[in-house]
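G., the chain you wanted modeled:
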Amino acid sequence: MARSDYVFTSESVSEGHPDKVADRISDTVVDAFIEADPEARVACETLVTTNRIILAGEVRAGKAGKSKAENKAFTKEIIASLQPKVREAVKDIGYAQKGFHWEKAKYACYLHGQSAHIAQGVDATEKKDEGAGDQGIMFGYACSETPEMMPATLQFSHNVLKKLADARHSGERPELEPDAKSQVTLRYANGKPAEVVAIVVSHQHKKKLGEQSYSSKRMRDLLEPYIRSVFPDGLITKKTQFLVNPTGKFEIGGPDGDTGLTGRKIIVDTYGGAAPHGGGAFSGKDPTKVDRSAAYACRYLAKNVVAAGLAQRCTIQISYAIGVARPTSFYVDLHGADTIDPAKLEKALPEMIGGATPRAIRTHLKLNRPIYARTAAYGHFGRQPDNEGGFTWERDDLVAELKRLA
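Predicted structure as C-alpha cells:
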C-alpha cells in the first residue's frame, strides 16, 4: 500500500542553467528545421562552456519533388542559417557576460546528414504507417496535487524560478543573473501537501545588490518575497527552512561556471522524481523520435484520466521497437483507484490517439510545428496550451469520452 504521510523533494533549474542553455539551443535548431520542413529529422546535441557554443548531430530536410542533391543542398542552407538564431536564443536568456556572451561566444556547428540506417527505421512501413525511430520505453504521469495536475514539489520549484526570471527580465530585479536552481521539500499528510519543510534557492547575481555589497542575508531579503508569493496560504510555516545561496557568493555561473549539455535535466523536464522516466531526453529531437512524442502522448492521456476523475494519480508506460509502428506494450497504473479497470483503459486509450503510432501521435497533438524552444525551461508538462500550438499535450479534451467509458 502506498504511503500517505511522508516527506518528498523535487528540484528545478532556470533557463540560464548551463544544461538548460544547451537544451534551448538544441530546441531552437529543431524549430528552425521544422519551420523549413515540417517532416524534417533532427537529433541535435549542444555543448556550451566558457565563450563556446558547439552543435553536433544528425539532420535531414527536404521538399517534395526535389532531387536528393537539391534536398541535401536545402539541408545545408538551413544549417548555415542557424548561427544568428542560436545567438538570439542566448541573448533572450540574458547572457551578455564576460565569460559567456551571446554575441562574442565562439560558435561551431558539426551537424551533418542523418544516417541512412537510422532513416530506414523511421521510413519503414508497417500497414502503411511509419515505424518508430528507435526502441525505447516512455512514461506519462498526472496527479491531483496541483491545478496543473503535476507533483507539487516540482511545480512549486518551477514556479519559484519562473517568478524570479520574470522579475529579472522585466528589469525589476537587475541584480539577478540568468543561472539559478531551486529545490522544494514538502511534508505530505493523507497524500496531500501539508507543509513546506524546506526551500533552497541558489541564484547567480551581480557583484553588488543595488547599492549594497553582496551578503547572503541581503540576497535572502531580496528573493524571499518572490519565493513566498508562489505558495498557497498556509503551506509555509514558521518552521519552514529557507536556504538562499547557502554556499555564499554566486557571481560566476552559467556556461562559464559549468559546462552545459543537452539532455542532462530529464527529471526536471518531467515529474521531479515523483514518477518513472524512460531514460530518453526530449530537447534537440524532432517529433518522429518517440522519446519525445510518445512521452508527450503518455502525459496527455494520463492527464485526461485524472481530469476525468478516474484516479487521483495515473502512470502510463508505452514501449516501441525500431521500425515498428504499433507500440509493443501499453500499461496503465491507477495507483489503487477502483473507478475503472486499468485493463479497459489499456485497450481504449491508445485508440483515442489513432493507435499510438508515431505518426498518429504527431497528427493528434499537431507536433510538426516549430513549438519546441518554449519547452526547454520550466518543464515540458504542467504548462498551458498556447495560441501558437505549443503544449497541445496539456489539453483535457478526452475527459467526456473517458467519463462515458467509465
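The first strand starts at residue 6 and ends at 13.

Shout if anything looks off.
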